[in-house]
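Risk mitigation, structural track. In case the binding assays with zinc ion fail to produce interpretable data, a predicted complex structure has been prepared as a fallback.
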Amino acid sequence: MAAQSETFSDMPLRFSIPSRHARGRLVRLDETLGEILAAHAYPPLIEKTLAEALVLTALLGASLKEPGSQLTLQTQTEKGAIRLLACDYKDGALRGYAQFDDATVAALPPDSTLFGIFGQGYLAITFDRMLPASEGGGRYQGIVPLEGASLAEAAEHYFVQSEQIPTLIRVAVDHVRGRCIAGGFLVQHLPEGEEGRERLHVRLDHPEWDHVEALASTTSKDELADPALPLEEMVWRLFHEEEAVLIEQGDGLSKGCRCDPAHIRDVIAKFPAEDRAEMADEAGDIVVDCEFCSRRFPVSLASFNN
Ligand SMILES: [Zn+2]
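Fallback model:
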Protein backbone atom coordinates (compact mmCIF):
# COMPACT_ATOMS: atom_id res chain seq x y z
CA MET A 1 0.00 0.00 0.00
CA ALA A 2 1.47 3.33 -0.98
CA ALA A 3 -0.30 6.64 -1.11
CA GLN A 4 1.02 9.92 -2.42
CA SER A 5 0.04 11.63 0.79
CA GLU A 6 -1.83 10.77 3.91
CA THR A 7 -5.54 11.44 4.20
CA PHE A 8 -6.89 12.91 7.40
CA SER A 9 -10.13 14.80 6.91
CA ASP A 10 -12.56 16.11 4.31
CA MET A 11 -11.40 13.65 1.65
CA PRO A 12 -12.70 10.12 1.23
CA LEU A 13 -10.36 7.18 0.88
CA ARG A 14 -11.53 4.25 -1.22
CA PHE A 15 -10.04 0.80 -0.82
CA SER A 16 -10.52 -2.64 -2.25
CA ILE A 17 -9.37 -6.12 -1.28
CA PRO A 18 -9.43 -8.02 -4.58
CA SER A 19 -8.84 -11.47 -3.09
CA ARG A 20 -11.95 -11.05 -0.87
CA HIS A 21 -14.12 -9.26 -3.45
CA ALA A 22 -14.52 -6.46 -0.95
CA ARG A 23 -14.43 -2.72 -1.37
CA GLY A 24 -14.95 0.12 1.01
CA ARG A 25 -14.56 3.75 1.85
CA LEU A 26 -13.49 5.83 4.81
CA VAL A 27 -14.19 9.48 5.38
CA ARG A 28 -13.71 11.93 8.23
CA LEU A 29 -15.42 15.30 8.22
CA ASP A 30 -13.78 18.14 10.10
CA GLU A 31 -13.71 21.69 8.64
CA THR A 32 -16.43 20.89 6.12
CA LEU A 33 -18.69 19.67 8.90
CA GLY A 34 -17.91 22.74 11.01
CA GLU A 35 -18.90 25.04 8.15
CA ILE A 36 -22.17 23.24 7.49
CA LEU A 37 -23.14 23.19 11.17
CA ALA A 38 -22.10 26.83 11.67
CA ALA A 39 -24.98 28.00 9.48
CA HIS A 40 -27.42 26.88 12.18
CA ALA A 41 -27.67 26.81 15.95
CA TYR A 42 -28.68 23.21 16.52
CA PRO A 43 -29.19 21.59 19.93
CA PRO A 44 -26.42 18.99 20.58
CA LEU A 45 -28.58 15.97 19.79
CA ILE A 46 -29.70 17.42 16.45
CA GLU A 47 -26.14 18.43 15.62
CA LYS A 48 -24.91 14.90 16.33
CA THR A 49 -27.67 13.32 14.24
CA LEU A 50 -27.07 15.68 11.32
CA ALA A 51 -23.30 15.05 11.55
CA GLU A 52 -23.99 11.29 11.34
CA ALA A 53 -26.22 11.83 8.32
CA LEU A 54 -23.63 14.04 6.61
CA VAL A 55 -20.82 11.53 7.06
CA LEU A 56 -23.11 8.79 5.73
CA THR A 57 -23.93 11.00 2.74
CA ALA A 58 -20.21 11.54 2.09
CA LEU A 59 -19.54 7.79 2.41
CA LEU A 60 -22.29 6.85 -0.03
CA GLY A 61 -21.56 9.78 -2.34
CA ALA A 62 -17.89 8.82 -2.59
CA SER A 63 -18.93 5.88 -4.78
CA LEU A 64 -20.01 8.32 -7.51
CA LYS A 65 -17.06 8.99 -9.76
CA GLU A 66 -18.80 10.55 -12.75
CA PRO A 67 -19.24 14.36 -12.66
CA GLY A 68 -22.76 15.64 -12.02
CA SER A 69 -23.99 12.53 -10.20
CA GLN A 70 -25.83 13.13 -6.95
CA LEU A 71 -26.63 11.22 -3.78
CA THR A 72 -29.49 12.35 -1.56
CA LEU A 73 -30.33 11.11 1.89
CA GLN A 74 -33.64 12.18 3.39
CA THR A 75 -35.79 11.09 6.28
CA GLN A 76 -39.57 10.94 6.11
CA THR A 77 -41.29 10.99 9.46
CA GLU A 78 -44.77 11.78 10.72
CA LYS A 79 -43.91 12.96 14.19
CA GLY A 80 -40.67 12.73 16.13
CA ALA A 81 -38.19 15.35 17.28
CA ILE A 82 -36.64 15.66 13.83
CA ARG A 83 -39.34 16.41 11.28
CA LEU A 84 -37.10 16.43 8.27
CA LEU A 85 -33.45 15.73 7.69
CA ALA A 86 -32.04 16.25 4.20
CA CYS A 87 -28.46 15.89 2.99
CA ASP A 88 -26.92 15.61 -0.42
CA TYR A 89 -23.61 15.14 -2.19
CA LYS A 90 -22.65 16.28 -5.66
CA ASP A 91 -19.12 16.54 -7.08
CA GLY A 92 -17.57 16.66 -3.61
CA ALA A 93 -19.99 19.34 -2.37
CA LEU A 94 -21.87 18.37 0.76
CA ARG A 95 -24.85 20.07 2.35
CA GLY A 96 -27.57 19.20 4.81
CA TYR A 97 -30.04 20.54 7.33
CA ALA A 98 -32.53 19.35 9.92
CA GLN A 99 -35.97 20.67 10.80
CA PHE A 100 -36.90 19.83 14.34
CA ASP A 101 -39.40 20.53 17.07
CA ASP A 102 -37.77 22.49 19.92
CA ALA A 103 -40.04 21.26 22.71
CA THR A 104 -39.77 17.59 21.71
CA VAL A 105 -35.98 17.82 21.41
CA ALA A 106 -35.65 19.50 24.81
CA ALA A 107 -37.53 16.61 26.41
CA LEU A 108 -35.27 13.92 24.90
CA PRO A 109 -32.47 12.26 26.88
CA PRO A 110 -28.96 12.83 25.38
CA ASP A 111 -28.64 9.11 24.55
CA SER A 112 -31.94 8.94 22.67
CA THR A 113 -32.56 6.05 20.34
CA LEU A 114 -33.21 6.44 16.65
CA PHE A 115 -36.89 5.87 17.37
CA GLY A 116 -36.80 8.53 20.07
CA ILE A 117 -35.37 11.07 17.64
CA PHE A 118 -37.41 10.27 14.55
CA GLY A 119 -40.41 8.30 15.75
CA GLN A 120 -41.90 6.07 13.09
CA GLY A 121 -40.29 6.92 9.79
CA TYR A 122 -38.33 6.06 6.71
CA LEU A 123 -34.94 6.77 5.25
CA ALA A 124 -34.86 7.44 1.52
CA ILE A 125 -31.57 7.08 -0.32
CA THR A 126 -31.53 8.33 -3.89
CA PHE A 127 -28.77 7.94 -6.44
CA ASP A 128 -28.90 10.11 -9.57
CA ARG A 129 -26.11 8.81 -11.76
CA MET A 130 -24.86 10.61 -14.84
CA LEU A 131 -24.18 7.40 -16.70
CA PRO A 132 -25.87 5.70 -19.67
CA ALA A 133 -28.85 3.60 -18.51
CA SER A 134 -27.02 0.47 -19.66
CA GLU A 135 -24.29 1.22 -17.12
CA GLY A 136 -26.59 1.83 -14.18
CA GLY A 137 -27.29 5.51 -14.88
CA GLY A 138 -30.46 7.44 -14.06
CA ARG A 139 -32.36 7.67 -10.81
CA TYR A 140 -32.51 4.86 -8.31
CA GLN A 141 -34.25 5.26 -4.98
CA GLY A 142 -34.47 2.87 -2.06
CA ILE A 143 -36.57 3.43 1.04
CA VAL A 144 -36.04 1.59 4.31
CA PRO A 145 -37.65 1.97 7.74
CA LEU A 146 -35.76 4.12 10.25
CA GLU A 147 -35.02 1.12 12.42
CA GLY A 148 -32.01 -0.09 14.34
CA ALA A 149 -29.63 1.65 16.70
CA SER A 150 -28.45 4.37 14.34
CA LEU A 151 -28.78 5.97 10.92
CA ALA A 152 -25.76 3.88 9.89
CA GLU A 153 -27.67 0.71 10.73
CA ALA A 154 -30.68 1.89 8.74
CA ALA A 155 -28.32 2.53 5.80
CA GLU A 156 -26.91 -1.02 6.14
CA HIS A 157 -30.47 -2.29 5.76
CA TYR A 158 -30.83 -0.20 2.64
CA PHE A 159 -27.91 -1.98 1.01
CA VAL A 160 -29.09 -5.43 2.04
CA GLN A 161 -32.75 -4.84 1.10
CA SER A 162 -32.58 -2.54 -1.91
CA GLU A 163 -29.26 -3.46 -3.46
CA GLN A 164 -28.69 -6.93 -1.99
CA ILE A 165 -25.12 -6.04 -1.06
CA PRO A 166 -23.75 -7.27 2.29
CA THR A 167 -22.55 -4.05 3.92
CA LEU A 168 -21.03 -2.94 7.20
CA ILE A 169 -21.17 0.74 8.14
CA ARG A 170 -19.75 2.43 11.22
CA VAL A 171 -20.16 6.09 12.05
CA ALA A 172 -18.76 8.07 14.98
CA VAL A 173 -19.29 11.67 16.04
CA ASP A 174 -17.12 13.29 18.67
CA HIS A 175 -15.95 16.68 19.86
CA VAL A 176 -12.20 17.13 19.63
CA ARG A 177 -10.71 20.39 20.91
CA GLY A 178 -14.08 22.08 20.57
CA ARG A 179 -14.67 20.92 17.00
CA CYS A 180 -17.30 18.44 15.91
CA ILE A 181 -15.64 15.57 14.01
CA ALA A 182 -17.56 12.81 12.25
CA GLY A 183 -15.94 9.69 10.84
CA GLY A 184 -17.45 6.94 8.77
CA PHE A 185 -16.41 3.55 7.45
CA LEU A 186 -18.22 1.38 4.91
CA VAL A 187 -17.20 -1.99 3.54
CA GLN A 188 -19.11 -4.23 1.13
CA HIS A 189 -18.91 -7.65 -0.42
CA LEU A 190 -19.29 -7.66 -4.21
CA PRO A 191 -18.57 -11.18 -5.41
CA GLU A 192 -20.08 -10.48 -8.83
CA GLY A 193 -18.47 -7.14 -9.54
CA GLU A 194 -19.75 -3.66 -9.00
CA GLU A 195 -22.33 -3.22 -11.71
CA GLY A 196 -25.95 -4.28 -11.82
CA ARG A 197 -28.54 -4.08 -9.08
CA GLU A 198 -30.31 -7.36 -9.70
CA ARG A 199 -28.68 -9.86 -7.41
CA LEU A 200 -30.88 -12.88 -6.94
CA HIS A 201 -28.74 -15.11 -4.84
CA VAL A 202 -27.21 -13.16 -2.04
CA ARG A 203 -25.23 -14.89 0.61
CA LEU A 204 -24.79 -12.93 3.77
CA ASP A 205 -22.68 -15.76 5.21
CA HIS A 206 -20.13 -16.05 2.40
CA PRO A 207 -16.73 -17.06 3.94
CA GLU A 208 -15.00 -14.12 2.20
CA TRP A 209 -17.50 -11.71 3.71
CA ASP A 210 -17.43 -13.36 7.14
CA HIS A 211 -13.69 -12.76 7.21
CA VAL A 212 -13.83 -9.12 6.03
CA GLU A 213 -16.76 -8.34 8.30
CA ALA A 214 -14.97 -9.80 11.34
CA LEU A 215 -11.91 -7.62 10.70
CA ALA A 216 -13.96 -4.53 9.84
CA SER A 217 -16.03 -4.89 13.02
CA THR A 218 -12.96 -4.08 15.09
CA THR A 219 -12.99 -0.44 13.85
CA SER A 220 -13.36 1.77 16.88
CA LYS A 221 -15.29 5.00 17.19
CA ASP A 222 -12.19 6.65 18.66
CA GLU A 223 -10.21 5.88 15.51
CA LEU A 224 -12.95 7.13 13.22
CA ALA A 225 -13.23 10.47 14.96
CA ASP A 226 -9.51 11.00 15.64
CA PRO A 227 -8.43 13.84 13.31
CA ALA A 228 -4.74 12.94 13.80
CA LEU A 229 -5.06 9.36 12.53
CA PRO A 230 -4.52 8.98 8.76
CA LEU A 231 -7.25 6.98 7.02
CA GLU A 232 -4.54 4.93 5.27
CA GLU A 233 -3.32 3.78 8.68
CA MET A 234 -6.82 2.66 9.62
CA VAL A 235 -7.02 0.52 6.47
CA TRP A 236 -3.59 -0.91 7.27
CA ARG A 237 -4.52 -1.68 10.89
CA LEU A 238 -7.60 -3.58 9.78
CA PHE A 239 -6.38 -5.40 6.70
CA HIS A 240 -2.57 -5.65 6.86
CA GLU A 241 -2.66 -9.43 6.67
CA GLU A 242 -4.51 -9.44 3.36
CA GLU A 243 -2.70 -10.37 0.16
CA ALA A 244 -3.25 -6.94 -1.39
CA VAL A 245 -5.21 -3.85 -0.52
CA LEU A 246 -5.61 -1.12 -3.14
CA ILE A 247 -6.30 2.42 -2.01
CA GLU A 248 -7.30 5.56 -3.83
CA GLN A 249 -8.12 9.07 -2.63
CA GLY A 250 -11.49 10.46 -3.69
CA ASP A 251 -12.48 14.03 -4.48
CA GLY A 252 -11.95 16.59 -1.72
CA LEU A 253 -15.12 17.44 0.16
CA SER A 254 -16.39 20.92 0.84
CA LYS A 255 -19.48 22.66 2.08
CA GLY A 256 -21.52 23.37 -0.99
CA CYS A 257 -24.89 24.90 -1.49
CA ARG A 258 -26.66 25.31 -4.76
CA CYS A 259 -29.04 28.04 -3.70
CA ASP A 260 -29.41 30.38 -6.63
CA PRO A 261 -30.85 33.95 -6.48
CA ALA A 262 -32.14 33.67 -10.06
CA HIS A 263 -34.01 30.47 -9.26
CA ILE A 264 -35.52 31.97 -6.10
CA ARG A 265 -36.70 34.98 -8.15
CA ASP A 266 -38.27 32.67 -10.74
CA VAL A 267 -40.19 30.82 -8.02
CA ILE A 268 -41.49 34.07 -6.51
CA ALA A 269 -42.44 35.35 -9.98
CA LYS A 270 -44.89 32.45 -10.37
CA PHE A 271 -47.06 33.77 -7.53
CA PRO A 272 -49.89 36.22 -8.34
CA ALA A 273 -48.99 39.88 -7.70
CA GLU A 274 -51.33 40.15 -4.69
CA ASP A 275 -49.68 37.11 -3.02
CA ARG A 276 -46.26 38.63 -3.61
CA ALA A 277 -47.41 41.87 -1.99
CA GLU A 278 -48.48 39.89 1.09
CA MET A 279 -45.13 38.08 1.26
CA ALA A 280 -43.10 41.31 1.24
CA ASP A 281 -41.77 42.84 4.46
CA GLU A 282 -42.03 46.51 5.46
CA ALA A 283 -38.98 47.41 3.40
CA GLY A 284 -40.70 46.02 0.31
CA ASP A 285 -38.57 42.87 0.07
CA ILE A 286 -39.60 39.25 -0.10
CA VAL A 287 -36.92 37.49 1.93
CA VAL A 288 -36.27 33.82 1.25
CA ASP A 289 -33.95 31.76 3.47
CA CYS A 290 -32.00 28.82 2.08
CA GLU A 291 -32.73 25.97 4.48
CA PHE A 292 -29.36 24.35 3.83
CA CYS A 293 -26.98 27.26 4.34
CA SER A 294 -29.25 29.82 6.08
CA ARG A 295 -28.31 32.52 3.56
CA ARG A 296 -31.04 35.11 3.13
CA PHE A 297 -32.07 36.32 -0.28
CA PRO A 298 -34.09 39.54 -0.39
CA VAL A 299 -36.00 40.05 -3.63
CA SER A 300 -37.40 43.54 -4.09
CA LEU A 301 -41.12 43.66 -4.71
CA ALA A 302 -40.56 46.67 -6.95
CA SER A 303 -38.41 44.55 -9.26
CA PHE A 304 -41.53 42.76 -10.53
CA ASN A 305 -43.40 44.58 -13.25
CA ASN A 306 -46.93 43.62 -12.29
ZN1 LIG B 1 -27.97 27.66 0.32
